Every structure is written in C-alpha cells, then in structure tokens.
Amino acid sequence: MQTSDVDSRLLLGPGPSPVSERVLRALAHPTVGHLDPQFLELMDDVGTRLRRVFGTDNRLTFPISATGSAGMEASLANVIEPGDEVLVGVNGVFGGRLAEMARRMGARVATVEAEWGRIVPEEAVIEAVRARPGTRVVALVHAETSTGVLQPLGDVGRFLRETPTLLVVDAVTSLGGVPVDVDATGIDVCYSGTQKCLGVPPGLAPITFSEKALRRIEGRSAPCQSWYLDVGLIAGYLGQERRYHHTAPINMLYALHEGLRIVDEEGLEARYARHARVGRALQSALIDRGFTLFAQEGHRLPQLTAALLPDGLEEGPLRNELLHRFGIEIGGGLGPAKGKLWRVGLMGAGATDASVDTLLAAVDQLLTAAVRA
Amino acid sequence: MQTSDVDSRLLLGPGPSPVSERVLRALAHPTVGHLDPQFLELMDDVGTRLRRVFGTDNRLTFPISATGSAGMEASLANVIEPGDEVLVGVNGVFGGRLAEMARRMGARVATVEAEWGRIVPEEAVIEAVRARPGTRVVALVHAETSTGVLQPLGDVGRFLRETPTLLVVDAVTSLGGVPVDVDATGIDVCYSGTQKCLGVPPGLAPITFSEKALRRIEGRSAPCQSWYLDVGLIAGYLGQERRYHHTAPINMLYALHEGLRIVDEEGLEARYARHARVGRALQSALIDRGFTLFAQEGHRLPQLTAALLPDGLEEGPLRNELLHRFGIEIGGGLGPAKGKLWRVGLMGAGATDASVDTLLAAVDQLLTAAVRA
Asked: What is the extent of the structural domain holding B99?
C-alpha cells in the first residue's frame, strides 16, 4: 500500500473539500526552515490575507499549527480561566464540542439549546447573558457543519460589544464561503479550518483575536493551560523578535498561502456569490427529488447542505455506492442525525456547477435503481 | 510573493531536515476524506510502521495531528492530573519545556538539573524518585536538540518498570536516527516529530503509549484538559468504530507514510549506521578546524552537533552568510547558548557525506576570509 495507490475522489462531503492543482503544487514546494527570512515573509503575507478574508484589522491573526478543532481549543483555552462562566449556543455537534472543551478547562458552562437544524435565537442568548451578568465568554457556531445551519450573529455582537463579555465564533465551515465580517459583527475570537471553503488540505486553523480578547489574555491570573496553543508565546514568533516557539508546519503554510492567493484573485464577493449560487441550485434540485432540507428555511448554508432522504431510502448503502461506484464522497449524519441524512459540501474548489451536475447524475441513477428494487 | 519564489536551501539545521522528492510527491497526492476506507488503510499502515521505528508493540501508536511540541503536550496532558508529582530531567531547552508544560497542567514539578551539554545522571533521577516515592511521572529528553546530548535511559527504564511511575521520553530528534527501543527500554509514553530523522515536513508528532500508560489514563479522575489531544477520544477514530474526532491532516499523513516506507526500505540498522558515520565525520572535521563540541564526550548525538566556534569568530554573521551566500541553513544556540554555538543537523535525507562536504567547503571559505579580515 502506498499513497500513489489512493484513488482520487470528488470531495463533496463536509470536508475536506477538493484541493486545486495550484495548492497541491505549492504544498510540494521544497521545505525551508521556519526561521528562514523567505518563510517569515510568506507567513506575514498569510496574516495579511487572512485578515482580509476574516474581515478584520486584528494584528494577531494567524494559522494555529493543527486542525480546526485545535483552533476551537485555542480560542477557548486562551480566554477562559477555571471557574469562568461561559455560555455556549448548542444546536449541533460543534456547539456541543465547544461546551465540552470549556468544561474540561474548568469553566462553569451554561448552554442555550436549540433543536438540531434550527438557529440559536439571538434574543435567547442575550437574555441568558443578562440573567448571568458574570458571563465571561459567549461561544457560537457560525456555520454548524452537522446540520447546515447559518447562525445569525449581528444582534449578539452588537449587544456584547458594550459589555466585558467576549464573543467566540466557530467559522470553520463559513470562512471563505459566506461573509464572516469579524470586526463589523463584533467577534472577539474567530477560528476556522483550511479544508472547507479555503480549498486547502486539513492541518491548519486560521484564528484571530480582537484587542478586547488580548486585554483579557493579558489580564489572566494564570498562564494558558496549553503551552502549544498559548497565543502570548506564539505572538513572540510572529512578532519582530521571531522568537522560536515550535516548528511551523512549513509545507501546509505554503498551501494555505496559495489557497489565500486564489481567494484574493477571485475576490470575496465573487466567491460568496459562487457558493450561494451552486448551493441554491443543489438545494432546489434535492427538493425536486423528494429530499427534505434539514436546516431551517432562511438560515441555510449554501456550502453545506444537510438533507433527509426521500421516504424508504437508506442513506448508508446509497452513500457507499456514491463513493465506490462513482468516486464521490459525501457525508452522513452525526450524533442524533446519524443514519438519517446526507451532508453535501460544495466548498472552495468544489463549489461548481459541474460538481452539482456530477452528483445529481449519480444520485438519479441510484434513486432510479432503488425505486426499481 | 508566492511559494514558488521561495529558494531551496540545504537544510542542515536542527530541523526541518531535507525532504526527498518521493516524500514531496506523496504530500501532493490528491486529498481524500479522513473516513475514506483507502485513507484508513493508509493510517493503519502508518501505525504499523511507526511501531517498528519506535521499537514497540504498543497498539496505541499514531501521529498526533500537530507538530512535535504538541506531541510533548499530548504525552503529558494524558497522563498528568492536577496535583500529580512529576520529575523532569532538565539539561537544555526541551527539558525546560517539559517542566513548564507540566506546571501549566497543575503538576507539582521537581527537576533533576544538569549543566547544558551534559547528560542528566541516571542515578540522580533514580535517587530523586526514591526520595519522592509518590512521583507519578518521570520525563526525560532522549535527544536534547539544544545541546546535542544523547541521554542514556536504560537504568531509569529498568528501575521505573518495577514501580507505578511512568516514563515519558522526548524522542523528537532521535526517532529514526538512533535506536529508541521503547519496549526494551521501558518507556511508557514516547513522542517525536516528523521533520528530523524521519525526513518528512513538520506537522505531525508520532506518539506511542504503553499498556501501563493506558491503565493510568483509564484511571483518571477527570478527563484530559485537552479535548484535541485526548488519546481516549483519538483511539475511537483509530479503532474499529472509526468514530469521527477531528479531520486528520490527510496530505501530511501521505508524506509520513512515504517517509516511513523509505525508512523501512533502508532498514533501521543501516539508517542508524549512516547517521552515526556522517555525524562522526562532521564532528571530527569541526574539531580539526578549531571548533569545540558542546556535548559531553561519549554522549554525542550523531545527527545533531552543537559546536562552539573557534575563538574570535562571531557565530551570527557567519551563519547568515552560510544561508545567504551558500544556501545552507544551520542553527544557532538557544537560551544561554544563544550567540555562542552552531547547531548542525545531519538528519534523514540530510545525513550524507555530500552534506558534510558541502558544508565544510563553505565553512572553510568563510573561516579563511574571517582569518584574513
């Protein structure tokens, strides 16, 4: 068994998304050192480009050297201290994960729950903070990858801006696919992953911290429990001193840099429009075929569609056939949605009309065969 | 600025080491999903090959999805609980980092210190454990990258095997370059990095846990503070259930798999012999040129040589010239050794006679010019 034996797939699941030739070529560029001036220049440019896609002027904007879930952990670990009151919106797997991580860090966690597939009502979040004015952090998932819900954030952001409470937002599946607008929304810590709408392999977690978040971090009574994710230490490498912290994952950073160049060449507005257009095309085609969209109307992510299958169809075997007969990867449900739905990602380089057409042609063959059987 | 503008370097610093064409090609293989059966098969094979190079039968042997320092953090975070007594051998940067991480996790940390450049005497470690029989974990650095010291472990391993105390070992710079022998030595948790003697870009941290370590983890009174590094959760993905934890860094794992195939093709004994031979050649050539080896005689790593420069020579400007005039990267000193010494790595694909010749030719030019000036 070797890597060259691994067959290519059309990646239309919840991530990783297809990686373009340009990004793969950058990934394979000869490795240099993490203190090489050439590499440091590239890192600075990664920061500049990340600020653009996050919609922020935050100076501390960089990729964590691990995957999106480590971005989640870094965002909480830096701003939470044991005993802190933390409020988490939970309407899917990733909200649940935020709450679980915060608990492990010793926070006193309260949740605002919503049914899977529905948004967390912003007024419920604001009310919960009013009821618990000591709340230090509110954490919400912008794009809930387990359900396909796009969470509104504007009212919560406006409200928290006038309070000492920090707003932490999971933008793993949203960044580069729909606007994130960190500064305009009033987000204090925002993290993402590379393998969704940025079109880069998994392995890095872009993250950004507001000045309000940095003041919280500077005022900590004890250092961050995680040395690896301590942004105070990482900032020493990113800043003028270039102090060695850990060895950066050089080649993954090449790939991210190239992915961000592609984002900039396309332009953010054009990129969002492309994701919106193909996502809507897929969603209406699935409805035509008897699927039921899982996410609440008006709050559907274009780049990640969760859909319940037409009555009488089993999702697992059909999904398996998509992979093995057609070479198309899509995702199944997680947690309580396991076995019930499909999750289709049209993200980054995968967000094309051709992806939709290829998928629908395969689905139509499978559905025809299933009805006949 | 783009990745293709980054000039190649001959990487003879403390890491990353040169990455072969084969590994770069594997890295750029089209990305597939982390639950794709093809990828899971590759992951299983990575585990098998890692067991071989670690010298272990430990079933829980896998790469952490982050760099070597995250391997250090994972090794401690899983086995330490707040209040635990932990003993760390400190004779360089990485021992100091182990102690710092353990403290952040709430451990009561004692250290056995040795002068930089000298080994931590095994009898001092054993004595310290005898004096503090409640010691839950002893942590030692096998290959101290900041000084070039190869730490003996056999006596400590034999002693701790008969006690409840766990032995955690940093093999970041040793794995694949000198024998690690996890099982024979009695190491309970051992971690490494990919960018040293394995010849793979930075980004993954191979790690292995003994049954004794797993029993300690099962008996924890509270979950691991880090969700991302919790091996109990990661084992659910590696095991039969293939339970989603986080999205594995697919392409980095392609590269690691290819790097491990190269290790197996060469054979471990041949690989160790190659590192030993070229390391010794470099060290004696440096002595001939008036350098002083920093590490204690009899305990020198062949793959990482720390050397004080001949009197009157400033390390920084010469090292800079090596990089900018000759395209050769070597490292400077860290901490108290900053500005005093060079660190030269002959690791993985960089451990060749040609590397030594190229470096010495450049050094000779620089020294001649410096003497003339």
From this structure: 21-264
